[in-house]
Amino acid sequence: MAKDKERLDLCRTLEKELKYSRFIHTLGVAFTATSLSERYGADMHKAETAGLLHDCAKYLDVSDMEKLCNEGGIPITKYEKGNGALLHSKAGTVLARTKYGVTDPEILKAIQYHTTGEPSMTLLEKIIFIADYMEPGRNSAPNLDRVRTLAFENIDQCLIQILSDTLQYLSTTGKEIDPMTKRTYEYYCEKENRP
User: Fold this and answer.
1) Mean pLDDT of the region 114-141
2) 44 pLDDT above the threshold of 90
3) What integer is the mean pLDDT of 67-74?
4) Long-range CB pairs of 12-20, under 8 A, 24+ apart, other chains included
5) What is the pTM of this model?
6) pLDDT score recorded for residue 195
7) Which of 78, 28, 73 is nearest to 52 (CA)?
8) Could you please report the per-residue DSSP string of the chain?
9) What count of Cα atoms within 13 Å lies in the side-chain half-sphere of residue 73?
10) Which of 27, 64, 87, 128 is buried most deeply by CB count within 10 Å?
11) For the chain, percent of residues with pLDDT exceeding 90
């Protein structure tokens, strides 16, 4: 019963703090994460919690994100500095711990790497990374049908597809690509013996 109340309280708080469209996205990520956790035998409560909190810092000012990271002892790379799209995941890790009382390192790490991924991701990290990309409200990314099928068939192949599509998209924007995303892609390609 306590978990149900905690879950409801968390949802009510997030509904007030996030833009409505982001809150709906957050619910979609939590739902998708719990579905994937059932498929792969991960802890559903951890998956749902990480899914609910993955974007908890999304609407902070970038300076506040940087301050949170500094106070939380999380290093900021030159690619993340001033870049809220990347930095919110690290700031969210600190916020999840300090504001929402999350102490589980696996949940915190899944929040931290939900944007770039990282080599040797845990199952929970993979689940949150994938759920964020393909939750039911997402409809504009390339190859979504393939991603959604792969997600329930082969989680590592799904990661490769998402990372490949992400790198391809970012290369067309002219923006610098975070090296962590490249390293993650290369790691899983090598692991799956793909060129």
Assistant:
1) 96
2) yes
3) 96
4) 13/100, 14/52, 14/53, 14/56, 17/56, 17/59, 18/55, 18/56, 18/58, 18/59, 19/59
5) 0.95
6) 60
7) 28
8) -HHHHHHHHHHHHHHHHS-HHHHHHHHHHHHHHHHHHHHHT--HHHHHHHHHHTTTTTTS-HHHHHHHHHHHT----TTTTT-HHHHHHHHHHHHHHHTS----HHHHHHHHTTTT--TT--HHHHHHHHHHHHSTT---STTHHHHHHHHHH-HHHHHHHHHHHHHHHHHHHTPPPPHHHHHHHHHHHHHTT--
9) 2
10) 128
11) 89
- For residue 164 the two structure tokens come to 């490949």
For the segment 147-180, what is each residue's pLDDT rounded down to a tens digit? 999 999 999 999 999 999 999 999 998 877 899 9
The answer to whether 157 touches 150, Cβ cutoff 8 Å, is yes
**Among 156, 33, 57, 155, which residue's Cα sits nearest to residue 106?**
33
Q: In the numeric block, which tokens belong to residue 80?
A: 């993340």
Instruction: Check pLDDT > 70 for residue 190.
Output: yes
The whole-angstrom separation of Cα 170 and Cα 166 is: 6
| CB half-sphere exposure, 145, CA atoms < 13 A | 0
